[in-house]
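User: I'm writing a short methods note and want a consistent example. For glutathione transferase, I'll paste the sequence; you return only the structure tokens, no commentary, since I'll be parsing the reply automatically.
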Amino acid sequence: MSHGKQFTLFNHKGGPNGWHVAFILEELCLTYESVFPEINMRAHKGAEGLAKYNPNGRIPALIDHGNNDFVIWESNAIVQYVVDKYDKERKISLAPGTERYYTQLQWLYFQSSGQGPYYGQLAWFITYHPEKPQSILDRYTNETKRVLGVLEGVLSKQEWLVGNRPTVADISFFTWNEITVGNFLENFDFEKEFPVTAKWHKKILERPAVKKVWDERARLLAQK
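Assistant:
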């Protein structure tokens, strides 16, 4: 790939996970080229060539051309790699080896094991599943609200998830919250039900790097 930028990011225009990585690259002023391979959303399977970079056949995947074309996949693994290697000033991350570093990891793991799967299943059953079993919709709706409740409980006691400042831990939750609250929760008032989390969410969107990337996503989606 000869675009001259440091990274190639395999992303999806509508999905949440690749944009989460783009936020971090933008926050750190790292140059990257986005590639949007065809993804079969019903099968959750990408183009055959994507498996060259991600054996799971999905996005995101990142190539670091500044590090011998090192390839890494899974969004929070990518994020951790990028900040450990390139956020030397710790603008949006905590120093490896510190207790707060492991708290940061804790939240990244919770996002990928708690928020992502539950929100994703809710989106799947609403958008793609041919039947709409109410018991399943109720389960994933309730689990989505439970995750928001976890965030609400912690953020009611502190402004940010770790280190008294915004980090990748906070930014990692933005895309799924934004997409799910706006599209998949019926009769839901974010500011009323989870006021502290809604305020925190808004502050993340107001970050220049996040807003720039999210506006770019909206522009690409509008071209469909």
